[in-house]
Amino acid sequence: MKIIDAHMHFSKIASFSDTGLLVSGVDYSDSGYRAEAGACGIVRSVCMGLTESPPAVFPDAGAPTPMLADLSDEPPREIAVCLGVNPHTLTGGALETMEALIQNGRGPGGSEVGPVVGSGVSMGVRQDVGDRGGREPCRGPGGSGVGSGVCTGEPGVGVKIAGIKIYAGYYHFDVNDPVYAPVYDIAEKYDLAVAIHSGDTYSEKGKLVYSQPLSVDNLAVDRPGMRIVICHMGAPWIYDCCEVAGKNPNVYMDLSGMHVGDAAYFSKRMCDPLLINYYKQALTVMDKYDKVLFGTDWPLAPMASYIEFCKELVPPDAYAGVFYENAARVYKLEKLEKLEKWTGP
Question: How confident is the model at residue 152 (pLDDT cuts 50, 70, 90)?
Fold first, then answer.
């Protein structure tokens, strides 16, 4: 079974590295990703852009928007990125930088209009972005360089832009706060999905009042043309999440990151009927599996273990949609016949 991992990470975040080493038993590296994805049949991944500087300060109020993926200088080409948004740094050219990256990675409706030169935080923008001319450094928020490269306009390692990521709860802003309005405008302009963190936060610095999935209902009603993905099934508010997704045609959910642990942990938890039925009942009541996307939240869990865990939560006749087709549709990834050509790293 070929799989799209609709929610994973590929950034130099200290807590992710520590979790991979000490909790999940995951090799959180470029080679580690390639090995796991290849072994599990994961042919495409949607990476949630995220950066921190200095280390171990996530959520970093000073991280520039857009936050990208910087675990390696040249991420695997099957990774598509959701541009991470830090509401504290949405000034000084951040929105213009987001648009430049989107225009040169994907066009409206998901059409590809050209490669983005470079990758991760070293990602450059082509020479012909906007009205710039000549070879000049690619500028980020406040005029700072997005990376050390220059805008050459020459073919490079292109990073496809799959959507935009809002870190509700981690950053203490409601998803309906006016600060996000221009970001949502960009998402609608380029027909990009908006992934919204929901539920528990991996950092004690998060505030759960901002990550309750019911907050997404107001946003979905006010912007009916914008696709929204509620991350982590809103756990522990899974019934609230299912209600919001079931009610609103433009809202979906992913199954990522509901538990953190290694292979032994997941083997034990999958034998607990109370845990499995907790999720299955909510999904059964909603009964709209076309709204559900598989995701691992790697490196918080081994890919193979999380695949088996999620197989327990949905009926086998929904596997094709949950593990593959829904993510391809919601994030407007390459057409399925083209995606079939991906065989892993």
Answer: very low
Instruction: Give me the amino acid identity at 143.
Output: G
The number of angstroms, rounded, from the C-alpha of 187 to the middle of its chain's C-alpha atoms is 14
3-339 has CATH 2.130.10.10 classification: no
3-class DSSP state of 193: strand
Q: Give pLDDT tens digits for 86-127.
A: 999 999 899 999 999 998 764 333 434 333 322 232 333 332
Q: What is the 3-state secondary structure (H, E, C) of 197-251?
A: CCCCCCCCCCCHHHCCCCHHHHHHHHCCCCCEEEHHHHCCCHHHHHHHHHHCCCE
Q: Quick one: which of 87, 98, 67 has its CA closest to 180? A: 87
Would you say 100 and 89 are in contact if contact means Cβ atoms under 8 Å apart?
no
Check: CB of residue 61 under 8 Å from CB of residue 87: no
Tokens 């949607």 appear where? 46
For residue 15 the two structure tokens come to 């807590």
pTM: 0.85
